[in-house]
Every structure is written in structure tokens, then in C-alpha cells.
Design a protein that fits this description.
Elements (H helix, E strand, L loop, with lengths): L11 E10 L12 E8 L5 E9 L3 E12 L2 E12 L7 E2 L2 E2 L1 E9 L4 E10 L2 E9 L6 E5 L1 E2 L13 E7 L4 E2 L5 E10 L24 E7 H6 L6 E9 L9 E4 L4 E3 L2 E11 L11 E10 L7 E4 L10 H4 L7 E9 L2 E8 L3 E9 L4
Parallel strand pairs: 12-17
Antiparallel strand pairs: 1-25, 2-3, 3-4, 4-5, 6-7, 8-9, 9-10, 10-11, 13-15, 14-15, 15-16, 16-17, 18-20, 19-20, 20-21, 21-22, 23-24, 24-25
């Protein structure tokens, strides 16, 4: 029992299971790695990964691969092609292109899989949304737009934004309406877009390090017109770096998981030295931790892990396109157990079992 005034612990751990996907030799789409997958269950009842496939020149696509399960454990995948490519003008720039780091959430209230992904376009990384009812055919709704919020004294549309993911169930927004909630991670350095502008922070924010925010989308508006899913509002800071493994920045991971204690958010914490936002980093360390958000008010953190649940330790996690990376992006239930899929050194995809530490 938690004593008054203390922070409850998070009764979960991650235990490695193995590697489920590695680049296929000779496939040009996978020349620079397979990583950071989304996931979902198709109409056929099968579980699928939607891995980020990286070709030469750091050009990313989103693939589809059926998860092969043996004895209740995911062990490998069977590839089923590419489902999203950077074939829109705003997903391509001079010398860069990509649809990156998809996160997919099945939102029962909409009857759809909702994908957030990063469009690596002319001005850099920008969050976008696509929807599907079968994981194979995706309809773009376009780039995300942040409604203006005067008390922030800042337009969030100015900033690059990554690590975005929707909650699976509607919640109550700050204004009391029923809404869909989404986590995101604004990047405050405008110098990455226009040299000389430097770091610009919203009113009330003093720490320039990249942190997790939450925004909301009124459910009635989305049901009236699905295109409203890209209009995010009521922006709130959720959590910033606090512990040593998060010293440089933090960002979200898989869709939040509803647990008895609230919403479990697996996130990544970064240490080391960050180069340009457009570089494939070589001097960083990404580890996986967890936040516990309040069930009724998911903008409120009620617990967090002071140390990583999973850090780069194996050869596959320590050596790759971007060394020393554990980057969780998907979570699925298989035979009553939850498995977390994560990028390994921006090169392969691993899987870990999410276990309760207080199970009898």
C-alpha cells in the first residue's frame, strides 16, 4: 500500500524474448535496416507488424509483416509488402524523403486503425495521420495541425514533432468533453528549420529539453468528419526528463496500455550527445522506461521509473545504424500476455515480455 505523500511504484518489468525481424539480404528497401514497428490485428485475426523499412539514403517506407507465433511467443515474421511510401510532395525534400516510425492504435470508437507517422519532408520531420480498417490500405488524412492556444504564446505548428501516438479509448478532455487523446513530442529548436532562430519555448515552459505533451481531439467532431482527426487542441505538458537515463530528452512509445493503475506508457529516455535532428545519431543511448498516467486525467503523471526497464545490452542493441538503441514502439497481447516490440540500434526489431512484478 502506498503511504500518503509517496509516489507509487510501477509494478512492471520487461524481459527480452528475442529478435523477430532482421533486414532481408538483397532487399533494397531494407538496406539500412528494419526498425521501430507499429502493430495491429487484422480482420483475419492475425497479428501484424508495420515495420519501418529503411533504404539507402535514409529513405523510409512502412511495410506489413505477419507475426509468426510459436508456443505463445512471437518468433519471426512473414513479409507481405509495403503499405506506405513517401510518394506525396510533402513527404519528400531535396535530398531526403520518408514515412517514418509509424505508431498504430485501434480505436474502437471509430472502428479504425489510426496511424501517426513522421513525414520527412522539405522542412524536416512532421507528424501526419493515416487510417485503415485492414492494415493494408491506408488513407492519408494529412499533416497534423495544432489549434492555436493563446496562453502558450506560441504556435506549435512551427516545430518539428515526433513520437506521436493515440490512446485507444476516448477520455475526458480538460474542457470536460469526450475526446481522443494523443501524446506527442515537440522539438523546440527552430534553428533546425531557419538557422539563427534558436530554441523558442511556449509560455510557462523553462526546460528546453524535448518532452512528452498531450493534445485532444473532440470525438463528436471526428465522428462528424473524419478529417478533423488531424486538428489537435488543448495542449498540455505531461512529462520531461527527470532521471539520469533521460538526461537529454524523452519521447513516447507504443499506444498507452490501460492497466489497473491507470495508463501505462512505455517511453524512451536518451543520454549522450545529439547531433542535428536530421543526422543518424552516433553518440547517444536510448533506453526504455515507463510512466503511469492517471486513468481519468491522462495529462497527470502518477508514477515513473527512475531506472530503465530495458537498456542496450545485447550485441543487436549496441551495434547498428545508430548504436546503443532500445526504442519501444508497439505492444500486443498474445494468449493473455503482453509483448513489446522495439527497435534495436535502428537496424533490427526485438521483442520483450511485459510482466507484472507483483504477480503471485
Amino acid at each position: 500500500m502506498t503511504m500518503p505523500g509517496t509516489t507509487p511504484s510501477i509494478p512492471y518489468r520487461l524481459r527480452r524474448v528475442g529478435v523477430v525481424m532482421t533486414p532481408q539480404p538483397g532487399d533494397p528497401h531494407e538496406a539500412e535496416g528494419v526498425l521501430n514497428p507499429a502493430s495491429g490485428r487484422g480482420p483475419d485475426g492475425q497479428l501484424y507488424l508495420l515495420p519501418r523499412l529503411v533504404a539507402d539514403g535514409n529513405v523510409s517506407r512502412v511495410g506489413l509483416a505477419r507475426i509468426v507465433v510459436e508456443d505463445g511467443v512471437p518468433v519471426s515474421v512473414e513479409r507481405e509488402g509495403v503499405v506506405l511510401e513517401p510518394d506525396r510532395g510533402w513527404e519528400r525534400g531535396v535530398g531526403n524523403a520518408g514515412v517514418e516510425d509509424p505508431r498504430t492504435t485501434w480505436i474502437d470508437a471509430l472502428g479504425l486503425h489510426v496511424m501517426t507517422y513522421v513525414a520527412y519532408g522539405p522542412l524536416g520531420p512532421r507528424t501526419a495521420i493515416a487510417v485503415s480498417d485492414d492494415l493494408r490500405t491506408w488513407r492519408r488524412l494529412g499533416p497534423v495541425l495544432f489549434r492555436y492556444q493563446d496562453e502558450l504564446d506560441m504556435d506549435l505548428n512551427l516545430f518539428h514533432n515526433k513520437d506521436t501516438v493515440f490512446f485507444p479509448e476516448p477520455v475526458t478532455a480538460p474542457d470536460g468533453t469526450t475526446a481522443l487523446a494523443v501524446l506527442h513530442r515537440p522539438m523546440w529548436d527552430l534553428g533546425e528549420t531557419k538557422p539563427g532562430q534558436g530554441v523558442r519555448l511556449p509560455a510557462g515552459i523553462e526546460d528546453p529539453r524535448q518532452s512528452i505533451w498531450i493534445s485532444y481531439v473532440p470525438l463528436d467532431a471526428v465522428r462528424a468528419d473524419l478529417s478533423n482527426l488531424v486538428l489537435w487542441e488543448q495542449h498540455r505538458f505531461v512529462a520531461g526528463p527527470q532521471y539520469p537515463f533521460e538526461e537529454v530528452k524523452i519521447g513516447g512509445g507504443p499506444p498507452p496500455l490501460r492497466v489497473p493503475e491507470g495508463w501505462l506508457v512505455l517511453h524512451h529516455g536518451v543520454t549522450g550527445v545529439i547531433d542535428s535532428a536530421f543526422a543518424q545519431q552516433q553518440k547517444v543511448n536510448y533506453a526504455a522506461g515507463a510512466l503511469l498516467l492517471d486513468a481519468e486525467d491522462p495529462s497527470r503523471v502518477i508514477a515513473r521509473t527512475p531506472e530503465p526497464l530495458l537498456a542496450p545490452e545485447t550485441d543487436d542493441e549496441r551495434s547498428g545504424i545508430v548504436p546503443n538503441v532500445v526504442f519501444p514502439t508497439a505492444i500486443e497481447e498474445i494468449d493473455g500476455r503482453h509483448f513489446v516490440f522495439y527497435g534495436m540500434a535502428d537496424s533490427k526489431i526485438g521483442v520483450a515480455l511485459l510482466e507484472r512484478t507483483d504477480a503471485g
